[in-house]
């Protein structure tokens, strides 16, 4: 059971690396784009601020996910005239909060760089 969980975790991490690379490729494609084109495609940013002649557009998202656990198994032990039911193993559901925050830096109304943080930054399919 523990080996299956470890293998699943490793596969998720490896898949995550590929997804992050794809997301960064999408973000790289926006370098040099105009602010109006970015807003047309990504929508109105959740936040923005200006400093030092630069503008920063911030896009963020969050959601919750439940990873289903596994049910326990049961064994029975008979002692005299009494049957005892014993619970063995099982994993409870796991709740995860997923989020992504992407910030585009603009100079002269053009994207010059980007930055992202979070565990749910994925490129659109």
Describe this structure in words.
The chain has helices at residues 2-29, 35-42; strands at residues 47-51, 54-67, 73-79, 82-88, 94-107, 110-118. The strands form 2 sheets. It has a 4-stranded antiparallel beta sheet, covered by helices on one side. Strands 3-4 form a two-stranded antiparallel ribbon. The mean pLDDT is 86. The chain has one domain (2-118). With 125 residues, it is α+β, with helices and mostly antiparallel strands. The chain is built from 2 helices and 6 strands, in the order H-H-E-E-E-E-E-E. The chain is rod-shaped and about 85 Å long.
Outline the secondary-structure elements:
Elements: H1 2-29, H2 35-42, E1 47-51, E2 54-67, E3 73-79, E4 82-88, E5 94-107, E6 110-118
Antiparallel strand pairs: 1-2, 2-5, 3-4, 5-6
Q: How is this structure best summarized?
A:
This protein is an alpha+beta fold. It is 29% helix and 45% strand.
Which key terms come to mind for this protein?
125 residues; four-stranded antiparallel sheet; two-stranded antiparallel ribbon; 2 helices; 6 strands
Q: By helix and strand content, what is the structural category? A: alpha+beta
Order of adjacent strands in the largest pleated sheet: 1-2-5-6
Order of helices and strands: HHEEEEEE
Shape: rod-shaped
Largest beta-sheet details = 4 strands, antiparallel
């Amino acid at each position: 059971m523990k080996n299956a969980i470890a293998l699943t975790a490793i596969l998720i991490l490896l898949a995550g690396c590929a997804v992050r690379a794809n997301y960064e490729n999408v973000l790289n494609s926006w370098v040099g784009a105009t602010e109006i084109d970015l807003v047309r495609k990504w929508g109105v940013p959740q936040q923005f601020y200006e400093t030092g002649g630069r503008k920063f557009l911030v896009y963020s998202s969050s959601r919750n996910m439940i990873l289903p656990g596994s049910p326990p198994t049961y064994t029975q032990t008979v002692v005299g005239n009494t049957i005892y039911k014993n619970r063995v193993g099982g994993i409870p559901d796991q709740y995860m909060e997923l989020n992504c925050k992407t910030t585009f830096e603009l100079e002269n109304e053009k994207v010059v760089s980007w930055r992202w943080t979070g565990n749910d930054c994925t490129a659109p399919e």
